[in-house]
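Reply to dn_fold:

You asked what the input looked like. This is it:
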Amino acid sequence: MSKQKILSIVIVVLILFMLFPNISRFTPETKNYQVYTQALNEYNNNDFLEAYHLFGDVSKFSKIKSAAIYRQALCAEKFGNKKTEVKKYNEVIRTYPNSILSLRAKYIRAQLFYQSKNFRKAKKEFKAITGKSPKTDYALASQYYLGSIELEKAQTTKNDKKKLKIQNKAISYFKAYLKDAPTGKFAINCVEKWTSLNRKLNNEDNMLIAKVYQKNNDYKNAQKYLKVTNLSIYWPYFVKNAYEMKNYSQVRYYTEQGLKGKGAEEVLINETENDVSQNENIYDAIDLYLKVSNSPKTAISYLLSLSDYSNGHDYLLYKNCNNLPATSQGACFNTLFYKYPDGQFAAEALANIFYDKVKSQKYFMAKKLGKTHLSKFANSKSAPRVMFWMAKVSERTKNYEQARAYYRKLIRQYPDDYYAYHAFLSLNRFRYFNVIGLKQKNIEFPYKNSGYGFIIELAKVKDYGLINQLCKDDDFIQSWLAYLQGNFSQSAVMARDAMGKLPNKPDRLDLRWRLVYPVHYYNEIKQNADYWDNDSILILSIIREESYFNPNSQSAVGAKGLMQLMPATAREAGNIVGINIPNEKLLFAPDVNIQLGNVYYSRLKRALLNKDILAVLAYNGGLGSVSKWKSDLNYYDVDDFVEQIPYSETQNYLKKVYKSYWNYLRIYDGVNF
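and this is what came back:
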């Protein structure tokens, strides 16, 4: 190496030491984690001054340094040093401009300017947030502050014309907030500041305010603004309000008037433009009408006669079809589909028409309808069912290769579905199929990709409070946080709903699946299931669907605990194993509930020829009903039997339990794939 190159290296090293004097004292990241964790403990113990100094000891080269500086700002807030607080937020913004914390620091800094009545700086900050990050919660909240700043400005403006213009600007900010966040933190504040101006409100303004009050469960104030809106347009909101105020005669009146009139397509002011969302309020209003009716079936017929071609007529037709005997449903669904071929219930109607042809063994027509459905409604909830039965039709017409192709496609496109499980069974019917039990896997942070790198670092130091602040809109992370806090039921439901919104499901090894299908109480489940010759994974699945792992769950009819046992059923099971149930509260004890639930399930299974599928049905629908269906229904095989179960609640229960069963097998390597 030449002397010139050596000299260049020496100069570079000297410059680095001058720019970064602490480089010679580089701190290992594990040490930074320890210091940060210690500081966080001091913060949680309210020793904010000590926490401030410890957060300052985190190396500037650490991946969590931005969080440490941000935490210092929070400490400064706690011990009342506003100057230091702002200084630390400025440091985050200046040093880590691309950090997720930078935007939050800007928002809090803007709030501090607002609180200190430095409205000029506050407005500049809030405007910058709405301009650069328009789709964030910070931008949304900034709308409220910008409106408030304009009101402050209007109060000091003497020129009436100019004052009016400023107030209008404030109102536009408040309205923008309310349209996007009717249940937001500042929603009621926006309404109160807006209405304090005593401006004349138009029809849409009154409806927007009524909606905000309604969403916040203030039905008395909602009624005040509903009264001055157009009933023929906004009738579903009138129905909702009347129901919540227990005025059931008005529920009936408003629904009937609404379905008779026109303008229903305008009902959903400020809703998304999605067709499903646009009709939800109408459907909810109809459901409330049926809820307060003595005879829902008669009520459906009456509303059908009123609604004719208005919005909601297709929903009433759909409900009517589902209420009819199986022999009459085919013709009803035909009417629904051909009257509303592109409606919200068209996919479900065509799926039922298709299955009706399968059941009557009109396979040529069934194939034609099935192909139409899969082409037109590929993303519908009924698509897996149609694809499964297209495979079954191919089998019955001896086109086995086509059947296997449908089964494989079903598993690939709808991997977590009930029908994917049955497709898997069908593909493996000629090979040994072995349930090998669950391989225990821990719940972990739900993401591994680089986009969550900083949040993963925060997870390592267990700064769950900061993660919660930064990830309020990520339901999987919120589910994970709920799990860590022991809110298992809330966690599972939140993750289930979030997974349901994904158009394409992730690979079975994706960590989010473990939140959707967590494993709780498995040692107790397996011990009791093995003793009573039950499938432990199936019992786990029943518990998930019955209570979502909430040991204190209680239904409206009095079923209690993890396995939702009725007290009389529990006592019968208790007599078998010598457990006395002196107090129904005992059923909330997980070990007792699981033991008695296994006893009861085992009895059902033995009474039904040891068939799990029948026992699961009986667990929900009762032993007598299942025995009657077995003798009354005309079915080709077990799949056909399930499709013909006349109680939709019990049929759906079975599908949900076996969907859970299949996903536990997939996620926890319960089968040989």
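DSSP finds 36 helices and no strands in the chain.
Hope that clears it up.
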